[in-house]
Design a protein that fits this description.
The chain is an alpha/beta fold. It has a single domain (4-121), classed as 3-Layer(aba) Sandwich (Rossmann fold). It has four helices and four strands, in the order E-H-E-H-E-H-E-H. The protein has a four-stranded parallel beta sheet with strand order 2-1-3-4, sandwiched between helices. The longest helix has 17 residues, at 76-92. The protein is globular, with a radius of gyration of 15 Å. The N and C termini lie far apart (46 Å).
């Protein structure tokens, strides 16, 4: 079985506090699955960027890297920019398998969690 790492991939923002929820998700995953490698990377404005994070994992010997977009939905970045970036990484690291998961916000469990939160606000 190949050594696998998960990169939580977020857009990034100029305000450093913006990433706090993503940092909390990353910390929770690390706590719940201490034997798994989980990292957080960003498209822009924040470090590490996706390319830098992926390259570091490749250099550590990870053979399979799953990129989980921490986006509510799949827009232009996930349709165009990220696939190009992953293609570039695949060309540079032919022995590493890069997988792009769907946007986390499109997962049914996340949709239902958001709906549950909204219902709780209105007392439903």
């Amino acid at each position: 079985m190949p050594q696998t790492a998960l990169i939580l991939f977020a857009h990034g923002a100029r305000d450093p506090d913006w990433a706090d929820p993503m940092r909390r998700v990353c910390a929770s995953l690390r706590e719940q699955a201490p034997g798994q490698r989980v990292e957080l990377a960003f498209l822009e404005f924040m470090k590490p960027e996706l390319r830098e994070c992926a390259e570091s994992l490749v250099n550590e010997g990870f053979e399979r890297i799953i990129v989980l977009p921490m986006f509510v939905a799949r827009g232009g970045h996930l349709k165009r920019d990220v696939p190009l970036l992953l293609d570039e990484l695949r060309q540079r690291h032919r022995l590493t398998r890069f997988e792009l998961a769907g946007a986390v916000g499109e997962a049914e469990s996340v949709v239902q969690a958001m709906a549950g939160h909204a219902l709780a606000l209105i007392g439903g």
